[in-house]
Design goal:
By secondary structure, this protein is mostly helical. It contains 8 helices and 2 strands; from the N terminus they run H-H-H-H-H-H-H-H-E-E. The chain has 3 domains: 64 residues; 46 residues; 33 residues, no CATH class. A two-stranded antiparallel ribbon has the order 1-2. Helix 1 crosses helix 2 and helix 6 crosses helix 7. The protein is elongated and about 85 Å long.
């Protein structure tokens, strides 16, 4: 083990935010570098000697990057099949709830498909779906909106000569637009 690897493992082992799996493996590898036997490391960390040997072997081959990583094919198998996931994604992007809500919540979508809210949250996160956020332009419900829109757009496209056009945003700030190449008195 190099000094740099030992330093990186020390940071992981002392981390308050790293996953427990990473901290435990880093501690085991540091103890192994101090010459402590696999059985003693396993006893101290409440693990098995077989696990400690596996961690040491993987570290020897892959380095610090292997610490805490679950190998492909290991871990819990998915309990939800791909067709149900695709149905959830499809419903999320193409339907709205029957209760009149503007978007799906994890709970309402979970009830619809018979899965937990946490499963829905994981699916949405992995697909970067945020049904509560809208990326569309919302039109005003003002009955005179179209007339006002035409007037404002016309003002921007063909402003009166020697005029200063002010645009006010009701929510955030005041913006000032001055047409270039005009002298104002």
């Amino acid at each position: 083990m190099t000094a740099k690897q030992r330093s990186e493992l020390g940071k992981i082992a002392c981390s308050q935010t790293a996953p427990v799996r990473e901290v435990r493996q880093a501690e085991a590898l540091l103890l192994a570098s101090d010459g402590i036997a696999n059985e003693e490391i396993a006893r101290r960390l409440r693990s098995s000697a077989k696990s400690v040997r596996r961690w040491r072997t993987r570290f020897g081959v892959e380095g610090v990057g292997s610490v805490g990583r679950v190998r492909p094919g290991r871990g819990r198998t998915p309990m939800i099949d791909a067709t149900k996931i695709e149905a959830i994604v499809s419903d999320t992007v193409s339907t709205v709830p029957d209760d009149g809500s503007s978007s799906w919540s994890t709970r309402s979508m979970g009830v619809r498909h018979g899965v937990s809210k946490d499963t829905i949250a994981r699916i949405w996160k992995s697909r970067r779906l945020r049904p509560w956020k809208t990326d569309t332009f919302k039109l005003s419900t003002d009955p005179e909106f179209e007339t006002k829109l035409i007037d404002v757009v016309g003002l921007y496209l063909n402003p009166p000569e020697a005029a200063c056009v002010f645009a006010f945003d009701e929510k955030r700030s005041v913006k000032l637009w001055i047409e270039p190449n005009h002298r104002y008195q």
